[in-house]
Amino acid sequence: MIRVFDQYIPTRTVLELLTDFVVLMLAAVLSAVTLMVLSQGNDPDLAVVPVTLLPAMFFAGLQLLLYVTFGVYQRDRVGSLRVLLICVTLSMVFSLAPLYFLLGGLFFHHGHALRFLGLAYFYQLLGVFLIRLPLLGAYKSRFWSRNILIVGSGSDAQIQASDIIDHAGGIYRVTGFYPSGHESGSAGPLPAPLFSRDLALDALVAHHRIDEIVVAVREQRGGALPLRQLLDCRILGVPVHSLAAFSERLKGEVPLDSLKASWLIFGEGFSQGVLRTVIKRVFDWVVALALLLVLWPVMLLAALAIRLEDGGPIIFRQERVGLYGKSFWCLKFRSMRTDAEKDGVARWAQANDSRITRVGRFIRKTRIDELPQLFNVLKGEMSLVGPRPERPSFVAQLTAAVPYYAIRHSVKPGVTGWAQVRFSYGASLSEARRKLQFDLYYVKNHSLILDLQIILETVRVVIFGEGAR
């Protein structure tokens, strides 16, 4: 794992990014060279080869952004050639128009720009098959996997092992389990060997070439942990992680069941400050204004459709809880019937909720109903990215039932958020607990880089209709 701006990025992902950048740069340069060869030097409108490095960087940069947007580097999304090719094809489709006008305006005549892009896309696909896929196969080999030893063999240890197998995508490999002092065996079948506690931990780590140790033991008092041996391993350079810390890195969420207040207090994260606040506010202003300028036709069509369907109000104002627990009026396009809560009782929105109108179903699925909140962003009541604001009645219930729920109010609520791009729409107490784990991760690790990642992934969620409500 490599830590960049408080975000843990797997080494394999960094290698994939570098590989893709080289492939894309090579595709663009080869495209320009091919055009020059075909013209046989008789076309003065074509740039010379050294000048093509700049359009190549534009080409590679935009394609990489679209790769991130469509989830090329998410282990749980791209697990086959078919899905990878779909993502690459989508990046080509969505980059065609902006690259055509950009390159045609700055470097080539528009006719040459179209030929340049056509050849670049061809070489891009060729590079995917000849360079990207073979290297991806090499990255999946055990040479790039990190061996994990889990201390503990109970239910927490088994859940952690399952999470590694399901989410790590070959980044980690569970080598075995080392029982704690309170465990005589395992609660069920284990996916890796259970070592004897009689073995010295440092010798075990050296023999099996363990790269990291995860302590999956909730009760750590009374000699449950081999503390001296763990310290020896740590001194030798082997990282030792708590269950919460490793889960945070692995899944991008903070697990509530194994969370301790001491880890939140003494651990890293929760960075605030005047500079960070100012940068985020300027970022919110600029992007919100840009989105309003681009999306106002969509908002106008949505408003007309809502009014034509039932003649009711277009904008729905609802009290929500924001920064430091202060209430504000959140704006949305109305997606439910006007009598949806005629008895005055707040209810969770459910999948296939009968209160949702036909227009409302579409604008909720495409997230168009959230666009009026850009005005909340301009007013400073919300941010573009942050935990989604909840209603006061729901906040009261969740604060009483879910530990650490109030922490999410230490940052401004957002139009979109980490939970919205990583988890489906929550409509119950149990789903609210799971969403909080993602919200805690965001509050603990929020940065401008993470905000940009969430905005890009929101585009994918809208395009593919993920987490439809």
Would you mind describing this structure in some detail?
- By secondary structure, the protein is of the alpha/beta class.
- It has 16 helices and 10 strands.
- It has 3 domains: 2-139, no CATH class; 145-251, Rossmann fold (3-Layer(aba) Sandwich), CATH 3.40.50; 274-339 and 347-464, no CATH class.
- It is 53% helix and 10% strand.
- The strands form 4 sheets. A 4-stranded parallel beta sheet has the order 4-3-5-6.
- Helix 1 packs across helix 2, helix 1 (11-39) packs antiparallel against helix 4 and helix 2 packs across helix 16.
- It is flat.
Write a brief structural summary.
This protein is an alpha/beta fold and 469 residues long. The chain contains 16 helices and ten strands.
Strand and helix map with partners:
Blueprint: E1 2-4, E2 7-9, H1 11-39, H2 53-69, H3 81-106, H4 110-139, E3 146-151, H5 155-167, E4 172-178, H6 201-207, E5 212-215, H7 227-235, E6 240-242, H8 243-251, H9 261-266, H10 274-310, E7 315-321, E8 327-333, H11 358-365, H12 373-379, E9 383-385, H13 392-401, E10 414-416, H14 418-422, H15 429-445, H16 448-464
